[in-house]
Amino acid sequence: MRRAWPAYRTLWIFLLLGWTVSAADRALTGPVVTWMIENKVGFLSATENRYALGGLIGGLFFAGYMLTQFPGGYLGDKYGHRTIITISLIWAGIATMLSGFITGLVAFIAIRVLTGLGEGAFYSNDRSLIAAETPQEKRSLGMGVVITGLALGITIATVFAPNMIELGGSVFSDGEDAWRMPFLILGAATLVVGIATAAYFRRQERGLPYARATLHLLAYSAVGLAAVMGVYFVGDAAGLSDLWIAILEVGLALGLVAFVFSRRQTEMGAVLQNRDLVLINLAFIAVLWNLWFFSFWSVSIVADAAGSSFGRSAMIAAFNAGAGILGFPTGGWLSDVAVRRGIGRKPLVVGFTAAQCVLTVIFGFVVAAGAANVWLMAGLLFSASTFFNAMQPIAHAMLADIAAPEHHGAAFGMNNLIGEIGAVLSPAVSGALRDATGGWSAAVFVDAALIGGAVILFLLVREATSVGDRPAGRFRRADSQTTTAASSTA
């Protein structure tokens, strides 16, 4: 007798598709910016520090993205995670398509920030929905399978950006507008996935409060857009460098954390005062730094180090993104096996992160030597990224084990909000280092040092034990009067 296809696997497929298109939308900016720099076109043609400005554009997207991490999780807990996931995908599709119509630097930055604000609501609700709907013994596997879409999306954006730009050159009468085509194509794909996801969720739960949730998210986003662009205008008027503007945007995010804590101490005290969650969140600054350093600049790194063409560099750089297709589900599966055998998730997180750090250091020396062999670079990128991607679903499952289920949305939202500090700074800092040094090796070594710091932070996390079929790790109340459901192990 054939076993019925479990409903949670269908959920995994739709969420994987959501990750794929949204990741492609956000990763697309890096290859497009690299093409604009190489061809001296668009709003990057007149600036002196082109890499720093290109990195700032990417960083400001993530400034918007991080500002809706906690609101997105909070609204998911309030209106339902399915509701916010659907809104996020449709929002991202429309905003990405609009990116292809924009003319002018400031307008382009604004629409990318707006895109980030919409996409920022996806992560915390996706992780929360998987944790709620997947059997606990398959939780890490589910998170790994679904987030494989991140690797697929980045790979699609990296590999096919040259082809989409080439198509744009034949469609638009002005060849300088060829960069618009990737945004139009991938934005339309995201919109289709968003509509299909809405139809799927409608079969599960009718009457989702889309209107109220959209208005609530729009209110948060309006404030976020005004704040991010206000910081940009003030920094630009004051003559600050692109790097300092990115740093100010991080200060804005930290101010948001402080504001949230002051307004919602009862709810958020459990998240922000939990030692182990804080350690994981800080480690994710390095995780997100590494992810978007290589996702944004890998094509340029390969082109500079190996002297290869834009198209070939994109193909080699795709080994970094493509490794997630293997790493994400494998890491999730190994994590669940380790828990069943009493080993726990922590040894895998620490070991995989340490292996990635060593391989990144070796990659840095290869880049520094110059005239690098493209296949050696491809092998190192693939190996380091496989370990890097494998550790992420394991760390996500650790967070879900530690967090109380009723606070999963807020916990995952805060995790990504703090982690996105790395995503905001990484493209801008790395681009500034490229402008200052004339090469990418310094930026690679900075990335490796941050990953080394993440290894230490993960070592200090106390993994939750299990009691029966439920995680023992529970939030401590802010007043520390309530005991946890079970103790954590050192």
TrEMBL record:
<feature type="transmembrane region" description="Helical">
    <location>
        <begin position="181"/>
        <end position="201"/>
    </location>
</feature>
<feature type="transmembrane region" description="Helical">
    <location>
        <begin position="213"/>
        <end position="235"/>
    </location>
</feature>
<feature type="transmembrane region" description="Helical">
    <location>
        <begin position="347"/>
        <end position="368"/>
    </location>
</feature>
<keyword id="KW-1133">Transmembrane helix</keyword>
<feature type="transmembrane region" description="Helical">
    <location>
        <begin position="282"/>
        <end position="303"/>
    </location>
</feature>
<feature type="transmembrane region" description="Helical">
    <location>
        <begin position="143"/>
        <end position="161"/>
    </location>
</feature>
<dbReference type="InterPro" id="IPR036259">
    <property type="entry name" value="MFS_trans_sf"/>
</dbReference>
<feature type="transmembrane region" description="Helical">
    <location>
        <begin position="439"/>
        <end position="461"/>
    </location>
</feature>
<keyword id="KW-0472">Membrane</keyword>
<feature type="transmembrane region" description="Helical">
    <location>
        <begin position="241"/>
        <end position="261"/>
    </location>
</feature>
<protein>
    <submittedName>
        <fullName>MFS transporter</fullName>
    </submittedName>
</protein>
<feature type="domain" description="Major facilitator superfamily (MFS) profile">
    <location>
        <begin position="11"/>
        <end position="465"/>
    </location>
</feature>
<feature type="region of interest" description="Disordered">
    <location>
        <begin position="471"/>
        <end position="490"/>
    </location>
</feature>
<dbReference type="GO" id="GO:0005886">
    <property type="term" value="C:plasma membrane"/>
</dbReference>
<dbReference type="GO" id="GO:0022857">
    <property type="term" value="F:transmembrane transporter activity"/>
</dbReference>
<dbReference type="InterPro" id="IPR020846">
    <property type="entry name" value="MFS_dom"/>
</dbReference>
<dbReference type="InterPro" id="IPR050382">
    <property type="entry name" value="MFS_Na/Anion_cotransporter"/>
</dbReference>
<dbReference type="InterPro" id="IPR011701">
    <property type="entry name" value="MFS"/>
</dbReference>
<dbReference type="Pfam" id="PF07690">
    <property type="entry name" value="MFS_1"/>
</dbReference>
<keyword id="KW-0812">Transmembrane</keyword>
<feature type="transmembrane region" description="Helical">
    <location>
        <begin position="50"/>
        <end position="67"/>
    </location>
</feature>
<feature type="compositionally biased region" description="Low complexity">
    <location>
        <begin position="480"/>
        <end position="490"/>
    </location>
</feature>
<feature type="transmembrane region" description="Helical">
    <location>
        <begin position="315"/>
        <end position="335"/>
    </location>
</feature>
